[in-house]
Design brief:
Helix content is 32%, strand content 18%. It is of the alpha/beta class. It folds into 2 domains: 204 residues, Glycogen Phosphorylase B (Rossmann fold), CATH 3.40.50.2000; 174 residues, Rossmann fold. The strands form 2 sheets. It has an 8-stranded mixed sheet, sandwiched between helices. A 6-stranded parallel sheet has the order 11-10-9-12-13-14, with helices on both faces. The longest helix is centred in the middle third of the chain and has 20 residues. The chain is globular and about 65 Å long. Keywords: Glycosyltransferase, Transferase.
């Protein structure tokens, strides 16, 4: 039987090239775009400054539909979750679907809980929620009046999406359980699909970035968005304790002026490169001896399955993760070590253990083997298989 054509509408957190970072949602959208039965992928996102054209065709062929924020300041982003602030702005998207759909199936993918009303503004063949974060929890772990308001608004929006979804995917067991609790006994397919890796991009790349400014010795590195969920205080203490190590941070500053990040950067053995294009990331990986994912203890981080874990392993690097309970089952000697808490001595001791075997060829091969089983292509095929898109209604 010939597969029906499908249009995929992906609700995302921001414009495609924002911060030069590639998240799960970017990889999902590109995977969907490459499927033979896909007619079109539309990336629907909030934007501080919506472009003049309603639709922008990206280099990868995906169409971007930007919805201008209520107001530019970050404090007003609650408008992304409240219907009155975005409903009219979706009209042209809906007109496009109404005019251009000629028998295709149309699927709505939520990758964050924005624009919840969209789920009821069109007769979707499927609504899918791909949940990758505990969205309502404050990323810094700090609670105040503003974060309590934000938490309430996002929680309500997400609850509507959970109710509207036909299928729900979650990146960790914590998120799966959270969703199931909120369904309150309602039967709905909820699947755990953890984050993966573009395996060949990291394992076959031997380029090396020139970034150490002449420093020698062991390099501990973090690559990704630099945000308040990271334990900058612990890393600063480790940098002071281990002067012969270099601590390398690669990624855009999303800390909003966090003083602890500023203090960390004062250490002579700490290097921050700023943002890096996705194509440059493997070259930075090859500079690093030990990958670090130093997260704070928080409810937000309890739910996270970090994108970089399998990327480090695909590059053959051992990894230390802090306060990421979703990763405990990945633990294996010479490959990955998980630490709970924020004890600097424990962190440096574990890094010393990995330092002694980081370049052992047999251990490098074991790390790559662990990552190979988590290739994005396989994970996304598993997800599509759960949707049964080729079955007629």
């Amino acid at each position: 039987m010939k597969a029906e054509k499908v249009i995929h509408v992906v609700v995302a957190t921001g414009e495609w090239g924002q911060d030069q970072l590639r998240y799960r949602r970017h990889r999902l959208a590109e995977f969907l775009a490459k499927q033979q039965e896909t007619e079109e992928v539309i990336w629907v996102c909030p934007s501080e400054e919506a472009p003049s054209d309603t639709f922008t065709v990206l280099d990868n062929g995906i169409k971007q539909f930007a919805v201008k924020d209520f107001l530019k300041k970050k404090v007003f982003r609650f408008g992304r979750y409240k219907d009155v602030f975005y409903k009219k702005k979706l009209a042209l998207l809906l007109e496009h679907l109404t005019a251009d759909v000629h028998g295709e199936k149309v699927c709505l993918w939520y990758t964050f809980p924005g624009f919840p009303l969209l789920s009821s503004l069109y007769q979707w063949d499927q609504v899918i929620y791909d949940c990758s974060d505990l969205w309502a929890a404050p990323i810094s772990g700090k609670q105040n009046i503003a974060s309590a308001f934000r938490q309430k608004v996002i929680f309500e929006a997400e609850s509507r999406i959970i109710k509207a979804a036909d299928t729900i995917f979650c990146t960790s067991e914590y998120l799966c359980q959270n969703v199931k609790n909120r369904l309150k006994g309602e039967e709905k397919p909820v699947f755990k699909i953890e984050n993966g890796v573009e395996y060949e991009l990291f394992t076959l790349n031997d380029q090396k970035a020139d970034v150490l400014n002449g420093r020698e010795g062991t390099v501990l590195g973090f690559i990704g968005g630099i945000k308040p969920k990271l334990d900058f205080k612990l890393v600063k203490e480790a940098a002071r304790a281990k002067k012969d190590w270099t601590f390398l941070f690669v990624g855009p500053d999303g800390t909003n002026g966090d003083p602890e990040f500023k203090e960390l950067l004062k250490e002579e053995n700490v290097i921050w490169t700023g943002p890096a294009a996705p194509s440059e990331v493997p070259a930075y990986m090859n500079v690093i001896d030990i990958g670090i994912i130093p997260y704070k203890p928080s409810s937000y981080n309890n739910a996270v399955f970090p994108l970089k874990l399998f990327e480090f392993l695909a590059a053959g690097k051992p990894v230390v993760g802090l306060n990421l309970p979703s990763t405990e089952k990945v633990q294996k000697e010479h490959i990955y070590r998980h630490i709970a808490g924020s004890d600097t001595g424990t962190f440096t001791n574990v890094c010393e253990e990995l330092e002694s075997s980081h370049d052992d060829p047999s251990h490098i091969e074991l790390r790559k083997k662990t990552a190979r089983e988590k290739d994005w292509h396989h994970l996304f095929h598993t997800m599509i298989g759960k949707l049964n898109l080729n079955e007629r209604a």
